[in-house]
Amino acid sequence: MVWPIQKTEVLNSDVSEDVEKPHLDNRKLVKQGSSMPEVEMMKERFSKLLLGEDMSGCGNGVCTALAISNAITNLCATLFGQLWRLEPLPPEKKSMWRREMEWLLCVSDHIVELTPSWQTFPDGSKLEVMTCRPRSDLYVNLPALRKLDNMLLEILDGFENTEFWYVDQGILAPDADGSSSFRRPLPRQEEKWWLPVPRVPTGGLSDNSRKQLQHKRDCTNQILKASMAINSITLAEMEVPESYVEALPKNGRASLGDLIHRYISSDQFSPDCLLDCIDLSSEHQALEIANRVEASIYVWRRRTNSKPITNRSNSKSSWEMVKDLVIDADKRELLAERAESLLLSLRQRFPGLPQTALDMSKIQYNKDVGKSILESYSRVLESLAFNIVARIDDLLYVDDLTKHSDQLLSISKVGLIAHKSVAIPYSVPVSSTPYKTAFTTPSFSPSQLVSPAKGEKSQFVDGSKLPHRGFGVKKVLTDYLSIDTKGKDCSNQVGRSESFSSSNSENHQHLKLE
User: Fold this and answer.
1) What are 330-335's contacts with CB under 8 Å, separation 24+?
2) Whether 252 and 329 share a structural domain
3) Is the domain of 493 the same as that of 384?
4) Residues 223-260: pLDDT tens digits?
């Protein structure tokens, strides 16, 4: 009687195992099914890269470098193009950003350079061989960009349970909520009807909340500077396309025009005085001047480095001809140096100057995949950092208006900003990156118009004193990447950079270079 019972138990156990196996198989299928969309998405991304964005497959696509640059640009536009509020990035968007960026950046793992090294054999003999190592620019800059990326996401994650909130324009909120109502757009928001209006409590933000905002703004501003430095150095290292060189004017006068050429050739040349004499009232005009000055630099440098012209008058002796050539070369070099100083002064006066025609041409015709990755990655991080700084500045602006509303005569009963009755001057500089942000941020806080409170006051640096984009990346990364975004106050290390005017509606068209 014992054996049959045991046999029955064994049979029952077998049945139970058979019943449990389908459940285990179902779990495996569910897990595999969840990973299938990611695999299909990865196949689609790499198929587009291999085709060079030419879905016909006829070989008319762009080069690999530009395809990767466009892919990174489009991914950023999809996930961060509508950063209108200071709030954490949704988990699905964050995972998508990290996953797809990892796919696009994995190409850099196979970009190496060969260096000589010595290999020792067991018998003690040595042989010089070539070994592979990551390319130096990628080895230095790519980890730095990854760290900047993570820091920006951490800053966004910190905007939880905040004292401020946003109201869509045109939506009236009840006064019972005890808030300061801004039911119309701020002065610099009037043309951006889609932007939500930041709102704060009646008494404004608490000292602790404002201090945290200031700390996050300072840290983000340093990330912006580091990204700009990497982007500028990467662009400077790209080769000048032949198409750009061929399209240059014949001489510097044709490029600059008679007025600027006459000033730049005079003995009393001063870049700042020359800029004061030029109409730079709009972003388009400033960018046009930058393009013309940059073209003249390459015109003069190309003629200096070109072969001497032999069809000169035979009446001159060989020594006179050599002397004339030396004088002409020195003069062209002097003019090129003056043009460089003029371009530098222009960039310092307009720190948010968009990419010039030369920069866009370099991106379009660049064949170096590694430099394309560094340029596009730093550019999108620059855009994201700038948007965060702009949103924080908008919030601090509203907070200052709320706290000092009794001293500003331009606040109506419902808290509307009657900017027509009181002129609050703020500069309208141009955009910092190809990604243009939603609206201009003020160059100073309204609290500076009144007696300063006991609390900390935002410090704004004059845009004319800002450094040029191309300062040394080693110093930038050494100074800025060690910032603790969660604890330490870095306000004593940070100069508030000049804000930039921009438009989110032009993001995709301005960045994507077909």
Assistant:
1) 332/252, 332/300, 332/301, 332/303, 332/304, 333/300, 333/301, 333/304, 335/252, 335/264, 335/265, 335/296, 335/300
2) yes
3) yes
4) 999 999 999 999 999 999 999 998 988 888 888 888 88
Burial class (CB in 10 A: 0-12, 13-18, 19+), 484: exposed
C-alpha 468, offset from chain centre: 15
| Residues with Cβ within 8 Å of residue 53, at least 6 apart in sequence | 61, 62, 67, 70
What are the tens digits of pLDDT across the range 396-454?
988 888 888 755 544 444 444 333 333 333 333 333 333 333 333 333 333 343 333 33
Q: CA-CA distance, 141 to 276, in Å (whole number)?
A: 38
In our burial notation (b when 16+ CB lie closer than 10 A, e otherwise), range 271-286 reads: beebbeeeebeebeeb
Pair 233, 333 in one domain:
no
Looking at the structure, do residues 70 and 120 belong to the same domain, yes or no?
yes
**Domain shared by 395 and 454, yes or no:** yes
- Neighbour-count burial for 30-52, b at 16+ CB within 10 Å, e otherwise: eeeeeeeeeeeeeeeeeebbebb
On whether both 182 and 249 belong to a single domain, the answer is no
Written as one letter, the residue type at 267 is D
Last residue of a domain, one of 363, 391, 412: 363
Instruction: Indicate which CATH number applies to the domain containing 269.
Output: 1.20.58.1310
Q: What are the beta bridge partners of residue 166?
A: 198
Whether 205 and 268 map to the same domain: the answer is: no
DSSP state of 126: E
Answer yes or no: pTM beyond 0.85: no
Which candidate, 332, 326, 339, 243, places its Cα nearest to that of 292? 339
pLDDT band per the 50, 70, 90 thresholds, residue 465: very low
Measured between alpha carbons, how far is 11 from 469 in angstroms, rounded to an integer? 77
Determine the 3-state secondary structure of 402 from DSSP: helix
Tell the burial category of 201 from Cβ atoms under 10 Å away from its Cβ (0-12, 13-18, 19+).
middle
Helix, strand, coil percent content, the chain, rounded in steps of 5:
60, 5, 35
Distance CA 127, CA 129 (A): 6
Cα dihedral 25/31/32/33 (nearest 10):
110
Q: What total number of domains does the chain contain?
A: 3
Identify whether the C-beta of residue 400 lies closer than 8 Å to the C-beta of residue 192.
no
Looking at residue 319, its amino acid is W
Give the pairing of strands 126-134 and 112-120.
Answer: antiparallel
- 63 and 24 in a single domain? The answer is yes
What integer is the mean pLDDT of 191-197? 74
- Which of 316, 346, 363 finishes a domain? 363
CATH of the domain at 233: 1.20.58
Give the domain extent around 43: 2-134
Residue written as token pair 């910190």: 158
Question: What are the tokens at 492?
Answer: 């004593």
